[in-house]
Write a structure and sequence with these properties.
alpha/beta; elongated; 5-stranded mixed sheet; single chain; two-stranded antiparallel ribbon; 218 residues; 9 helices; Glutaredoxin
Length: 218
């Protein structure tokens, strides 16, 4: 399995050494989980293609290392990269996780999201038409905005019928940006019943955003 990562980082070695008095097999298990963590970090930084990640995970499946597949599934499906994955996890009749590449139609279905595109002509109407509207203020040159984009797409699918999500290009709609004092991006403007009730700035994890949304939907 050393083919899919280099030596453990100093931090990983420290974690391994702090594992205490455990058996060699348990130490190997910890070592491989730490290597998986390092691999996923590389993927989340967009330094590893999804197809290459699939090859590594498929190797784990063939070697029967289900604990690694379960950890990978949990991390990937709760991440902002979920909608971009070119593969899927399924469960076999025996109860084991199996990983397969998505078919073209499955990829397209994953990429469909009910996110509105707003501009200065339809912004006010959207705010008034939806009981709860979350507007992602972004720009094409903004790196953190690209990180947030798939998160917004996933949330739009998850909360369809409860919360409406939209995107606003701040470069092309500067009057709206000035009206709501959007000084940094990405910024999420949260509207409820036509009024701005909250805003969040920065590339925030999905779990943090969901906790914030719950405050306004409960």
């Amino acid at each position: 399995m050393d083919t899919w990562t280099t030596e453990l980082s100093p931090l990983a070695r420290e974690k391994l050494n702090s594992a205490g008095d455990i058996s060699e097999s348990e130490r190997n298990r910890v070592r491989e989980l730490l290597k998986l963590d390092a691999l996923l970090v590389v993927y989340f930084k967009s330094l590893l293609k999804g197809e290459d990640l699939f090859k590594v995970l498929k190797e784990m499946e063939l070697e029967g290392k289900q604990y690694l597949l379960k950890e990978a599934k949990s991390r990937l499906e709760s991440s902002f990269m979920r909608s971009l994955l070119p593969f899927k996890f399924t469960q076999s009749v025996e109860g084991n996780l199996v990983i397969d590449l998505l078919k073209t139609e499955e990829k397209l279905e994953n990429q469909k999201t009910p996110v509105l595109e707003l501009n200065e002509s339809n912004f006010d109407k959207a705010v008034n038409d939806h009981s709860m509207l979350v507007v992602d203020c972004w720009a094409p040159w903004c790196g953190p905005c690209r990180v947030m984009s798939p998160v917004i797409d996933e949330l739009a699918v998850t909360y369809k019928g409860k919360i409406t999500f939209a995107k606003l290009n701040t470069d092309e709609n500067q009057q709206i940006s000035a009206r709501y004092q959007v000084m940094a991006i990405p910024t999420l403007l949260i509207f409820k019943d036509g009024k701005l009730v909250d805003r969040k700035t920065g590339a925030l994890p999905r779990q943090v955003l969901e906790a914030e949304f719950a405050r306004h939907t409960e």
